[in-house]
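Minutes, project check-in
Item: structure for the 309-residue chain
Input as provided by the requester:
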Amino acid sequence: MAREHDDQVAYWAEKLFYPVSLKGKVPKKDPTTKKLGASTAKSFTSRARIRAQIARTTQRTPEVMVKITNRLGAGKGMSAIREHLSYISRNGKLELETDTGELISDKLSIMEYSHEWKAQVRGKTIPEVSKRREAFNIILSMPAGTPEKAVKDAARAFLEEEFGGKHRYCFTLHTDTDKPHVHACVLAAPLKKGKRLNPRKPDLQRWREGFAEQLRDIGIDANATPRRTRGVTQPPLKQAGHHVRKRQSMSFGQMDRNAARSKDYNGAIEIWKRLAIALRESPTESDKKTAESIEKFIANPARTSQRKR
């Protein structure tokens, strides 16, 4: 009976945290990327992990952001890569850290490093202009108030777990907005035999989970859930917009009636309700309390989470 109950909880939780847009299941290891968020990918259905994920979400634990910048021509040849390295290093004023742990902190060293990338990836020269992505520009971010060093340390561990020994990369921390964030540049071509990096939406979700997991490992509250699971209807602001204005997303309890009728919103609410019902039927008091927290979560306006430092 207990097993049947846990199966019901796992069924609704998987639908909630891995919706149809992610093929309705926990993302599996992709042939173009190393497994990310190791414990998540292989054992999301564990009892403790599911309840921890529910607790983080209903408590509105700060959400990580991981995205690939898609500016026109991004990463398409060494000219674009060189320009991006100059941009994220603020023309050599900010320190770049490489996949080998080397620290680069001046324009000449960055230029030499880009020449190394161009010539030494499996013996194939990267053209100045390419029709395909030769590198991916990734941003890893946390909400305002998160310790800057923690963001950088977690990003370093995340990049090593995902790309270490497999792809060349470098990264640097930016603190010029209220949200500390790391810019990483990762070469698409593998160091050894294998497929080129070609991330898709499930990969980005795993990347978010992996980054959040690294933050939690160093004592920083962090979560990685789809927007629709949190009832968020407004997409995140593009990176450039952070420099000119601020905007807050609406969550459950803050949306107008028309927005509340959206298919994604109603679908998420219904799944949360089913999950609460399944937990209320549990013989354990902790599950019953979790059901209460779900009901409060979907009924009350979002509030600012307290971050542990």
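Outcome recorded: Residues 2-62+227-299 form one domain.
No further action items on this chain.
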